[in-house]
Amino acid sequence: MNEAVIVEAVRTPFGRRGGRWADRRPDDLLADAIQGLLGRAGLPPGQVEDVLAGCVSQAGEQGANIGRLAALLAGLPETVPGLSLNRMCGSSQQAVHMGAQAIAAGDMRYVVAGGVESMSRVPMFLDVTLGQGEFRGFDSLNPGLLQRYPLVHQIESAERIAEQWGLTRAEMDAWSVQSHARAWAAASAGRHSELLAGPAGLPVRDEGIRERADPAKMATLAPALRPPGQGNVTAAQASQLADGAAAVLLADRQTALADGLRPQARFRARVAVGSDPVLQLTGVIPATEQALARAGLRLQDMDWIEINEAFASVVLAWQRSLDADPARVNPWGGAIAHGHPLGATGAGLMAKMLAGLRATGGQFGLQVMCIGHGMATATVIERL
User: Fold this and answer.
1) What share of the chain is helix, strand, coil (3-state, %, to 5)?
2) What is the pLDDT of residues 141-164, one digit of tens each?
3) Catalytic (active site) residue 340
4) Residue 38 near residue 71, CB atoms below 8 Å
5) Among 26, 8, 346, 323, which Cα is nearest to 194's?
6) Average pLDDT score, the chain
7) In the annotation, is 89 catalytic?
8) Residue 338 falls in the annotated catalytic set
9) Which three-class secondary structure state does DSSP give residue 137?
10) Could you say which of 97, 192, 340, 373 is catalytic?
């Protein structure tokens, strides 16, 4: 069996909804990431055999197979196909998994796997609402499904997780403050080697990071979904709506070496799991356990951990359940600070984690993401 490796991984800075990328089409944004990736890696575009793109709201400017359209916009030969896929928040992490699996099977030698989301230009779940209103839940799904599983908004799931794990408002606010502080420190120190430079005059940093997140102001915020006094999950504890793109170059190890490229990491485990579709966001716990078991490693062996900060309660419940070392969890902050462009985040966190391992000399990294409707993805890599 061939060995799949990561040759390079990049991402755009993540922009706030309505911010730096609001005037940039998502297919152009993904094309920018693909061009930047191949330029850094030094791989001729004609050697790419497929482009796999995660994208959640596949409608409007993100419809019509954005993976193929971005490949053409990036100047790849017409012979290079493209695919769009949707595993919701884990979409581009799944794209990385699928690309690595194709290489390991011997079907391909070079794959670009990544993702994109413009939450400025394509409203979240436009494919569900069809533009008839703002998304407020999954009431329009199959009645038979809703009778079996009373699906709730993710914010309500985050509230129930906080209750089940006994998490306080103060604990969740504190994690949010820390996320911004870590992200600001990393950005200010110029540590994000995975970032692509944007248009001239724009800083090469994520737009949503706050230099000083005010705990006192956070404490005054009303619950994001529940009535005042009946909930503890606020907007400050949730990932920011964002725009961005990311791309990862995957290769067969021996082919890459023969072509003069330097593999940066190999895969030790790739996992996708299903979990309670009502609680929704707790799949990160069994996904982590399965990934570590397949890798033959312990959580303590991980030098760098990226868990998507969909909500502070998700991270804290995961951390409490697995007794994770907080210092190794999102060392450069997370989505509460830098944002969560749904289809791009999976590949973006992989690029960020690889940059972190390089910067610190770490060997093993774990990336894990919660996913709507009760799923999770997890990846363990080893830096080479």
Assistant:
1) 40, 20, 40
2) 999 999 999 999 999 999 999 999
3) yes
4) no
5) 8
6) 97
7) yes
8) no
9) coil
10) 340
